[in-house]
Amino acid sequence: MAKPSGSGVVRFKVSPSTACVIQKGDITKWFIDGSSDAIVNPANQVMLGGGGADGAIHNAAGPDLIQACYSVQEVQPGIRCPTGEARITPGFQLPASHVIHTVGPIYNASRNPQALLRSAYRNSLAVAKENNIQYIAFPAISCGVFRYPYDEAATIALSTIKEFSQGLKEFLLWMVNSHSLVPVFCSLWKFKFPKQLKLFVFEAAPFRLSIFFRLT
User: Fold this and answer.
1) Which ranges carry the Macro domain (predicted)?
2) Residues in the chain with pLDDT < 70?
3) Does the annotation count 26 as an active-site position?
């Protein structure tokens, strides 16, 4: 059963050891302990900042972040992080300790965008585990200027994270700006966990929202 937990927050169990929380928030302000947490930056292959969440994360992290990105070795001229791969830097002025940079596919311009998006989530989780990250927050990768349909992206995000998140204490899926994302993600969880979500209710309003999962 879903339970309200404060203004704009709903909590429900997705398994005996895992709880899901939906709440308002800002990914650049999210953190758990400031030492084993990371936010995922939907970057471009150059890794030197851009628009949307990428730009917001760079602005919040301060100038040291772009210097750290400059130091990431290029695998090809001008490419530090190919599509579907992930890199990690410190968080600098962000409250979260690290930033994991990943590049999602451009939906209408990439060959096999489904596989590339799955790789972006999977490789982000792999980098997190390699660096002893226990808490990770994801944006809706590729759903902004890269035009990936929200419902398809949600299916890939949830299935990949569910499959590869063993060992993490918490992971979060960020709902960026649009309240239309909330029913997309919630309907998917209703399908996957119908017993837990029979009485699920949530507040849909035009503010930033997040979903995260805590392993208890």
Assistant:
1) 7-216
2) 1-25, 165, 167, 169-216
3) no
The residue from 26, 33, 37, 54 that is catalytic is 54
Surface-to-core class of residue 124, CB atoms within 10 Å of its CB (0-12 exposed, 13-18 middle, 19+ buried) = buried
* CB-based burial label for 137 (10 Å; 0-12, 13-18, 19+): buried
Question: Helix, strand, coil % (nearest 5) of the chain?
Answer: 30, 25, 45
Distance between CA 21 and CA 9 in Å, rounded? 7
113 dihedral zone (left: phi>0; alpha: psi -120 to 50; beta): alpha
Q: Could you tell me which residues come within 8 angstroms of residue 206 by beta carbon, excluding any fewer than 6 positions away?
A: 177, 178, 179
| Residues contacting residue 192 through CB under 8 Å, at least 6 positions apart | 14, 158, 162
Q: Is 50 buried (19+), middle (13-18) or exposed (0-12) by CB count in 10 A? A: middle
In the structure encoding, which two tokens stand for residue 33, read together? Answer: 């302990």
What is the pTM for the complete model shown?
A: 0.80
DSSP 6: S
List the structure tokens of 180. Answer: 């239309």
pLDDT of residue 143: 84
Where do the structural domains in the chain lie, given as residue ranges? 3-215
Alpha helices in the chain (DSSP H): 52-61, 63-70, 113-130, 150-164, 181-192
